[in-house]
Amino acid sequence: MTGTTTTGWRPMRAGDLDDVLAIADAVHGAAYSESRETFAERLALYPAGCQILDRDGAALGYLITHPWCRDTPPALGQRLGAIPADADTYYLHDIALRPETRGSGAGAAAVAHVETCARAAGFDEITLVAVGGADSYWERHGFTKLIAYPAYGPECWLMRRTAI
């Protein structure tokens, strides 16, 4: 008898932060990894936007999303303090998927999941900062470049997708 593998998004828990840090370091490297405190604060402020891609108890990726103000994305590693009461966009702060998820549809499923979260929170657009040349990936998923965003580093773009 063979076992069944179950993969899907589930809510992030505080006990997942070691996995989140390991995935961030493996996927983003030193240039874009953030501290445990940054991830823990996002989880505390907006748990509905923090998700783990789980395969039979193993974390294969994560999403960090939250409402924010569309033209002022938080600086990398910045503590938020609070979710703004006047938030006007759903911000995709970070997505990281382990390399073994490539070709599995996990990336497209993550984008669809973020859309669902944005709609559930009452937003009709998603904003993100594409880093390290990922703008072409996000363009394939309907995002449009707005402005170069050098605060995050070279080849970074503020991008938005509307009418989700």
Features of the shown structure:
164 residues; alpha+beta; globular
Element-level helix/strand string: EHHEEEHEHEE
Task: Summarize model confidence as the mean pLDDT.
Answer: 90
Give the termini separation.
42 Å
Structural class: alpha+beta
Strand content: 25-35%
Gyration radius, to the nearest Å? 15 Å
| Number of helical segments with 4 or more residues | 4
Shape: globular
The total of beta strands comes to: 7
Portion of residues within helices: 25-40%
Lateral strand order in the biggest sheet: 1-2-3-4-5-7-6
Question: Which stretches are poorly predicted, pLDDT < 50 over at least 5 residues?
Answer: none
Instruction: Specify the biggest β-sheet.
Output: 7 strands, mixed
SSE topology:
Blueprint: E1 7-11, H1 17-32, H2 36-45, E2 50-55, E3 58-68, E4 89-97, H3 106-120, E5 125-130, H4 135-140, E6 144-148, E7 157-162
Parallel strand pairs: 4-5
Antiparallel strand pairs: 1-2, 2-3, 3-4, 5-7, 6-7
Can you offer a commentary on this structure?
With 164 residues, the protein is of the alpha+beta class. The protein is 29% helix and 29% strand. It contains four helices and seven strands, in the order E-H-H-E-E-E-H-E-H-E-E. The protein has helices spanning 17-32, 36-45, 106-120, 135-140; strands at 7-11, 50-55, 58-68, 89-97, 125-130, 144-148, 157-162. Strands 1-2-3-4-5-7-6 form a seven-stranded mixed β-sheet. A hairpin with an 8-residue loop joins strand 6 (144-148) and strand 7. The longest helix is centred in the first third of the chain and has 16 residues, at 17-32. It is globular, with a radius of gyration of 15 Å.
